[in-house]
Write a structure and sequence with these properties.
About 2% of the residues have low confidence. Helices cover 39% and strands 18% of the residues. With 217 residues, it is of the alpha/beta class. The strands form two sheets. A seven-stranded parallel beta sheet has the order 3-2-1-4-5-6-9, with helices on both faces. A two-stranded parallel sheet has the order 7-8. It contains eight helices and nine strands. Strand 5, helix 5 and strand 6 form a beta-alpha-beta unit.
Length: 217
């Protein structure tokens, strides 16, 4: 059975993904790179407390892996500055991908964002787009990029703006049809299941799964 490597296991999607990984019985070992313990216990689960500024050093304790999942992400408000946000959502993600590649991962799945574009004026979406671009340049055996819209689920941190958006989109969601369907909220469960499902099938070297397609993976 394959071995999995996860970064971002304490976040909204990461926590859900770890649960799915250990419930699936498809993986012999699941390695988590974390800053703090997840609180999840399983015989196949191995947590590695690391400094994400020194990601390349983490490989010594992990060994070879088959599938890698990246759910790293923050907000400018939480990070404290644009520079700190970019360090997490770009630098750490790319560094993790390099590590996964060097450890032999044949599948790499990453959570990006609806509207990610390296040329957009939106700082948040530009960083996401630059991250996607730089991941593609790494020559990973297979890269799966998921671009969810607004995420729903129970976060550890309170994000007031996101809560308001969730409420408004939740009310208007039935009216979002056609092209507007792409901005419907998706749950952490749906994204995590799409991540897991996306690495079980062979396909093109780079696959982008847009928000409206996440439910069908």
């Amino acid at each position: 059975m394959p071995t999995a490597l996860v970064a971002g296991a304490t976040g909204l999607i990461g926590r859900r993904l770890v649960r799915l990984l250990i419930e699936s019985d498809d993986y012999d070992r699941v390695h988590l790179l974390v800053r703090r313990p997840t609180g999840i216990t399983d015989d196949r689960l191995v947590e590695h407390a690391i400094d994400f500024d020194k990601l390349p050093d983490a490989g010594e304790d992990v060994g070879s892996v088959d599938h890698a999942f990246c759910a790293l992400g923050t907000t400018i408000r939480t990070a404290g500055s644009r520079e700190a946000f970019r360090r997490v959502d770009h630098d750490y993600v790319v560094a993790f991908a390099k590590l996964a590649r060097d450890l032999g991962a044949q599948q790499f799945a990453v959570v990006s964002s609806l509207g990610a574009d390296p040329d957009t004026r939106s700082f948040y979406l530009r960083v996401k787009g630059e991250t996607e671009r730089d991941l593609e340049a790494l020559g990973l055996p297979r890269l799966v990029i998921l671009r969810p819209s607004l995420l729903t689920g129970d976060r550890d941190e309170f994000r007031p703006g996101e809560k308001v958006s969730q409420l408004l989109l939740g009310i208007t969601s039935p009216l979002l049809v056609g092209r507007l369907g792409r901005i419907r909220p998706v749950s952490d469960e749906q994204v995590a299941r799409a991540m897991l499902g996306s690495v079980k099938n062979e396909g093109s070297a780079v696959r982008v799964i847009e928000s409206e397609d996440i439910r069908s993976v």
